[in-house]
Design goal:
Length: 360
């Protein structure tokens, strides 16, 4: 009988928390989208970019926005949900039945678990694809059709030349670049293929492992260079690569690109840091929720909805600042990326334990 009563209470708490987190996610995502739309409005009229393009771009970025705002939404929703139980004295009745603080926290975590799984799956498979597609559509509109995206990569026009890029990577890097150079009569003059390239600024691309085939009147000349520089009108903004940061990539893609950088003796710290942050995200969200719950059981017991919401946002911002600071320290001092990702979780675990001891 007692177990049945506890099960009913768990379902009741879980239902309230689930609804509160869902409403919080809807509200904060909508708010974030409004800010992004306002920020994008000055671009309307640039090239062939219209209001409808801006709205489609906004919709395509919803999965990425959900992934970004979910930890904060879960925290705010949990605090508001538990706070509503406290304000109506239901929490006192629940705890009077012998249900412990940790049992209530477990109910909160289980209620949020389905949403966490859905959001993480979106972050791994849907968000990277939709974000890159949105950026390519945007770049196509900005360039008045000079940039074309296909399943085989990107095609761009640079004066009388045509450029094909197989893969666009974060931080201005590309793989599989081909340049088809034509003369004034639109006769093919040369083909240049580079294994990889990087945009260094002011219209300059640094290409590596370059093979050129030059078509002359009486012969064909082949050239092989370890590296060369290429002057072009193509920029990161034109190719839609400027906003492809590590945080927007999936776990598998982060691991692949980090390995690529390490194989080429390049710094992979930022990508490994993002990789471990995504792996540890469920634990970091759980720790934030435990810390938030500890405040509901003490100082936020009799406060209003606005104060609880603000408290959740402040706790989330505190975690964000600690997370960014420790990540930056790890990168700057060449510490293991895992250490930079796990240190904020450890700090907030100790803080949550201290708060719960005070409550008990």
């Amino acid at each position: 009988m007692k177990n049945k009563r506890i099960s009913l209470i768990d379902k009741y708490i879980g239902g309230i928390i689930f609804k509160a987190v869902l409403l919080s996610l809807l509200f904060l995502t909508t708010l974030l989208m409004v800010f992004f739309f306002i920020d994008d409005m000055p671009n309307i009229g640039r090239g062939s970019y219209t209001m409808s393009d801006a709205l489609i771009n906004l919709l395509l970025n919803i999965p990425d926005n959900l992934l970004y705002i979910f930890p904060m939404s879960a925290l705010v929703g949990a605090i508001v949900g538990l706070g509503s139980l406290s304000s109506t004295s239901e929490m006192i009745v629940i705890r009077a039945t012998g249900i412990s603080t940790w049992h209530i926290i477990k109910s909160v975590l289980l209620a949020i678990l389905p949403l966490l799984i859905i959001v993480m799956m979106m972050g791994e498979w849907l968000s990277p694809v939709s974000k890159q597609y949105a950026q390519q559509r945007r770049s196509l509109a900005f360039s008045n059709g000079q940039l074309i995206s296909s399943g085989a990569g990107l095609w761009a026009r640079d004066g009388d030349d045509f450029i094909h890029i197989k893969h666009t990577l974060p931080e201005g890097k590309v793989e599989g670049l081909e340049r088809y150079k034509f003369d004034q009569n639109m006769v093919l003059d040369s083909i240049t293929r580079a294994e990889s390239g990087e945009y260094v600024g002011k219209g300059i691309w640094h290409l590596q492992n370059v093979h050129s085939t030059i078509f002359k009147a009486d012969k064909i000349v082949n050239q092989q260079l370890d590296e060369t520089r290429w002057k072009s009108e193509l920029t990161l903004e034109n190719l839609g690569m400027a906003s492809l940061d590590p945080a927007s990539l999936g776990i598998a893609e982060l691991w692949r690109y980090a390995n690529y950088l390490q194989r080429n003796q390049l710094d992979a710290g930022q990508f490994l840091l993002s990789f471990w942050r995504k792996i540890l995200q469920p634990f970091s969200i759980a720790v934030m929720l435990i810390l938030g719950c500890s405040f509901v059981f003490s100082s936020l017991r009799h406060t209003g909805l606005g104060a609880r919401t603000l408290s959740g946002i402040l706790i989330g911002l505190a975690y964000y600042l600690v997370n960014e600071s420790m990540g930056s320290v790890a990168i700057a001092y060449h510490m293991p990326a895992f250490a930079g990702a796990v240190m904020p979780v450890i700090v907030f675990i100790f803080l949550a334990r201290w708060r719960l001891k005070k409550v008990n």
